[in-house]
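User: I'm writing a short report section on ligand binding and want a predicted complex to refer to. Could you take this sequence and glutamic acid and write out the structure as tokens? A short remark afterwards would be nice.
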Amino acid sequence: MDYQQLIEEVYQEVKTKNPRGKVADYIPELANVDADRFGIALVDLEGKVYGVGDYDQPFSIQSISKVHTLTMVAHIFQRKLWSRVNVEPSGNPFNSIAQLEFEKGIPRNPFINAGALVITDALTTKFENPVEEVSRFIHEVSGKDCVTINQDVMNSELRHSERNTALAYFLKAYQNFDNPVEEVIKTYVAHCSMEMCCVDLARSFSFLANDGYSIYAKREIVTESEARRINALMLTCGFYDESGEFAFRVGLPGKSGVGGGVAAVMPHQFSIAVWSPELNEKGNSVKAIMALELLTDKLKFSLF
Ligand code: GLU
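Assistant: Sure. The structure tokens for the complex follow:
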């Protein structure tokens, strides 16, 4: 399979069709990105990199960092964590407060904001400097120092974090939150403000395509069964309340972020990251989703 030719074809087709959306602006600083950016990077399990477009330009990974944080604690807390967070698709907006109240403080899954806050709370309990640990972890699994925190995006989100703060207090009211709310929100916003390019993001997901073993760290990051579970969660919950649609159209486990990035894996074959900032009304990148749909159509395989 000539991956370089494949992603170039996909890139050109998407460019020609040019579907449009809207850049996220509820975090004001995110709106300052160039809406026409578009890049794809694919990394195979030998570490060979294929890239096209803006594949080496850093962008705000936002919620994609929730896969890294989940991996860090899934390993540490194992089953105990799953009593604090469920593993069901939410079918509701990612920052829903109503659902959390209805379900008595146990978030639907670790990728909606309430669930991710529980994960960041667990990280805060475990590590003295959780933000540094997240960067260190990503550097290890991607094999290089590639993460920077965009201070402007971080400060911008911190000034608009009322909803996430409300979710955290709700969790505390249901005794599902151990640390001071403000401290955890700061850590959460910091890991959402991390910037990476498509290549490094794809590299950082490589262990999930490889039964938990990182070719960069040269060690097992999670067990094969944990890797399968993280992939199952990405497939069922990775795209807000559009996860079913993504599974239907693309058929790969993946995670999106409101910065316009999507990282996905084809188990035993490759990991891939696509970035284009314009989002659909569900918060997913229109071009990234189209690109991944074309990719699995051309490959003639996905998980299914
Ligand atoms: N930091 C963003 C928030 O909490 C992440 C959203 C996302 O990418 O889904 O609203």
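A remark for your report: Residues 62-63, 94-95, 113, 157, 164, 192, 257-258 surround glutamic acid (CB under 6 Å). The first strand starts at residue 22 and ends at 23.
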